[in-house]
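Appendix B. Chain record.
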Amino acid sequence: MTSKNPRPSQSIKRLVFVVGSLFAMALTAGIWWGEGVAENDQGEPAHWLPVNTAPLSQRIDLIGKIEPLATRILTAPYDGDVKDYLVEPGLQVESGQTLLSMDPTLLETRLREALALQLKARRTVQELRNWSTGSQVMRARRVLRSSEMQISNTQRKLSISQDLFQRGIIARDELNDLEQQSKAQQLDLAAAREELQNVLNEGSGELLQIAEMELSNATVKYEALLALEKNGEVVAPFTGVIVPASSSKNSNEDGTIQVQAGSLVTQGQALFGLANIEQFKIVSHVSELDINKLQRGQAVEIFGDGFEQRLTGVVDIVGRLALADDDPGNSARFPITLLIDKLPVEQLQHIRLGMSARLSIVIHHSEQAMVVPVSALQQVGDTTTVQFRESAAHPVQQLIVTPGRPTVEGVELFGVPSGLLRVYP
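Structure tokens predicted for this chain:
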């Protein structure tokens, strides 16, 4: 039995084929690498990176608390005792619902006193307006008339006595007595005239003006008390939740006011607060590193463990005064307020005051942003440039660009279209 060995010519052909294939593969790889890798001025390799526009959003994530958009402090309408106290903290009330009623006993006493003062002031004004026909003026007129009659009689007697004295019928002393009596009555007449004028002056000028002002004040006071009497019940001005009010008077150890039926309160004293639950806000605070990135009107997404739905809102107030901190080494933090968009009734039922919320504030958004690695940028003096070409078959261009906001992936770039950018390691 004989064996057959392969012919030497066939082995040589196979070896040539393998070597040729490896050479072709190496040549192809070299051509490809030449297109994808270049060298910079320092001889370092550079790669061409495809770039395209894409949506870009930058956010700041915070934690906050849900609070009412507005809280109105309801106060006692007037001095007096609380008759009925119908609410408690946390109770939801409807617009127009009676929350508290007052005992009007003390107010009614003040009303009677004010009415008495008004009636007295009105009588005084009426007397002064009719002063010329009043009792005091009439009395002064009667005194004056009496003095005039007396002096008239005396003058007549004096005239007769002078005639009789000239005839020698009466003595000189009798005539002198009548003359003295006439002089005294003339003085009384002058005094009566002066007294009448003084009495007439009392009913005009400043005295009347003062009396009219006192009547006006008494009327205003009485009408104000009448208006208070109509407000003997404290009602809810809108739908909301009762919250405690703080005060230094009639308060508990935690500062909340302790009011109950029978409590004596004064006009304007805070009773409790009513939180508006028709719209909410969120209060939070942000580090000094991020505070200047926020501005009013920025969109916010809101999430919470206590409510399933995603809420939306906007930044409303960005604080300019840092929160108090006893440690000067800590980073400053600033308060911010966000408004939650108005919610339908079914969603409002799931929101509670004081719930925690996770906030995602959109500080920048672009639908067609170009984000590139920082290593693609070249600084030439004050100008930033990139090496660009539309595709591998197009020539290289040097474009002047404007860097924007930094991102995790690189930096937002303005002034470059979609294509290939040269990126250096």
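Further analysis of this model is presented in Appendix C.
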